[in-house]
Fold this sequence. Notes:
This protein is an all-alpha fold. The chain has helices at about 10-25, 30-35, 40-50, 50-75, 80-100, 105-110, 120-145, 155-175, 180-195. The chain has a single domain (about 60-195), classed as Tetracycline Repressor, domain 2 (Orthogonal Bundle), CATH 1.10.357.
Amino acid sequence: MGRHKEFDQEKAIDQALDLFWEKGYESTSIQDLCDHLGIHRGSLYDTFGDKHELFLACLDRFSARTDENYNYILKEDSDSPKEQLERYFSRVMDVSLSNAARGRGCLMTNTTLGAVAYVPNVASRIDAHYMHTEGLLFSFLMRAQNKGLVRSKQSLRQLARFLNGVKQGVHVMARTTADRGVLEDICAVAVSTVF
């Protein structure tokens, strides 16, 4: 009979995510994780494999959270896609400024800029995360175009990639400015490019 795990695996992933987010992958040791999660090394290895596998689980969890935090807005069917995109960027700004105030930025952006981004299974998750957002933006733009509301002459794929880049830029800019007006200006120009 196997040993019963004395901790909640889902809660442990959330706690590990917070630690990786705060310290970064490279600066988080196995001992840091054990101390933060309140578990023994053996339990961590038995459950998650190793630090890297636990980090991958955290990236997956983070990607799911972005859908819950703001990507869900892109899935709505709205009579005013312009207002919908403004609401989307407003929520992205809220989340970005909140993360910046906690000194941690966006986990996926931080990971993209770190050395671990060159590890193939991390790179594939980063790519999947960005491609997922691009796909949501593309579908959103298709619905807006079908309503005759897209003004831009750029292709919808180009616009989706541009808006995805703006979103990532907001995450980065929020780390260097507490002035929401700066972010609002960036997002307003992005919206005006489309509608």
